[in-house]
Design brief:
201 residues; alpha/beta; 5-stranded parallel sheet; 55% helix; 13% strand
């Protein structure tokens, strides 16, 4: 089974591309969904985070206050590294389990949707990396609209990730999502067909 790593910059349109792949029948393993699951109340990662940061990091219902946690880790590299030490091994184990299930079903390919694919070193675990890219202006505009951030907060979040230009340089496939969705859809269809059509191998 061929494993595609799907990544991009924050608000570059990676989720849009993941949904296009699902529409084409792709099995998409979403690392963000798994990341939320491993920090649910009572999970070992939740316990570790609460022991580290105290109950002030929780919402009234006991779940993590993701806004408060995000503000902390985006402003502090050491805090971000510690959070990743707590969560990344558990996320990786769950991703590997989901891929093993896909392979057992006999699928030709599967996609790991991971915003921090390069940062977490997961590029070494996939067969090829697809990077969803957008120009800086589109990225910041989408991020402020989506997350209700100020332009300064949006820039700080973009700066906390590996530069999109570096991700593009290291990618096997770059999907440009700066303009119209139909063009993006054509690029996705072409790239997925190359991976799943036996005649092309």
């Amino acid at each position: 089974m061929r494993i595609i790593g799907l990544t991009g910059g924050i608000a570059s349109g990676k989720s849009t591309v993941a949904n296009m792949l699902r529409a084409l029948g792709a099995r998409v393993v979403d690392a963000d969904v798994i990341a939320r699951r491993v920090v649910e109340p009572g999970q070992p990662a939740w316990e570790e985070i609460v022991a580290w940061l105290g109950r002030d990091i929780l919402r009234p219902d006991g779940g993590l206050d993701r806004k408060k946690l995000g503000d902390l880790v985006f402003a502090d590299g050491e805090a971000r590294a510690r959070l990743e030490m707590i969560t990344h091994p558990r996320i990786a184990a769950a991703v590997e389990q989901a891929l093993a299930e896909a392979e057992a079903e006999g699928l030709a390919a599967a996609v790991v949707d991971a915003p921090l694919l390069y940062e977490a070193g997961w590029d070494a675990k996939v067969d090829e990396v697809w990077v969803v890219a957008a120009d800086d202006e589109s990225q910041l505009r989408r991020l402020t609209a989506r997350d209700g951030l100020t332009p300064e907060e949006a820039k700080a979040r973009v700066a906390a990730q590996m530069a999109l230009a570096e991700k593009r340089r290291r990618a096997d496939v770059v999907i440009d999502n700066s303009s119209d969705l139909e063009r993006t859809r054509r690029e996705v269809r072409r790239a997925w067909r190359r991976v799943t059509d036996p005649a092309r191998h």
